[in-house]
Write a structure and sequence with these properties.
The protein has 145 residues and is of the alpha+beta class. The chain has 8 helices and 4 strands, in the order H-E-E-H-H-H-H-H-H-E-E-H. The model has no long low-confidence stretch (mean pLDDT 95).
């Protein structure tokens, strides 16, 4: 399964497009639509390069979400956005993944997604309002018809 246009737009909206390298809220060098692999200060890309990076970057989250079993498109898209943001390793061992695999209709999935709203900077864990908003949108998409 592939991320739909709707899912792609949600990811792009939350990540934003930055054509010059910057440090994200967690202090990681980032460029394009949330691309982090191999990014260094001073890097500059085009929008076309950012689009290619995003398509490539979504391959691992899509594969990881596909391991959850058969999901309808909105649930697949919501989880791909989630995994793209938190990372496949965190998702792979998460209670959220276990819940989705056990019963993808479980309403508790909403509150489980909402727990992933923290960032740790310099050893301090805090709620990031942007993550709260993203989780609410992802959880809403997951349960949309």
């Amino acid at each position: 399964m592939k991320t739909s246009d709707r899912g792609m737009e949600m990811i792009k909206d939350f990540e934003g497009l930055r054509l010059e390298a910057y440090r994200c809220a967690a202090g990681v060098w980032t460029i394009g639509y949330g691309h982090t692999r191999g990014v260094a200060p001073g890097d500059v890309i085009t929008k076309a390069e950012a689009e290619k990076m995003l398509a490539s970057d979504l391959l691992i989250p899509e594969a990881e979400v596909s391991r959850c079993g058969s999901l309808v498109q909105n649930r697949f898209d919501a989880l791909v956005s989630f995994v793209f943001n938190v990372g496949y390793a965190a998702f792979r061992s998460s209670t959220l993944k276990k819940m989705v695999m056990k019963n993808p209709d479980d309403k508790a999935i909403y509150s489980e997604m909402m727990k992933w709203k923290y960032v740790t900077v310099n050893g301090v864990r805090k709620v990031l309002p942007g993550l709260e908003k993203r989780r609410a949108k992802e959880a809403g998409m997951y349960f949309s018809k």
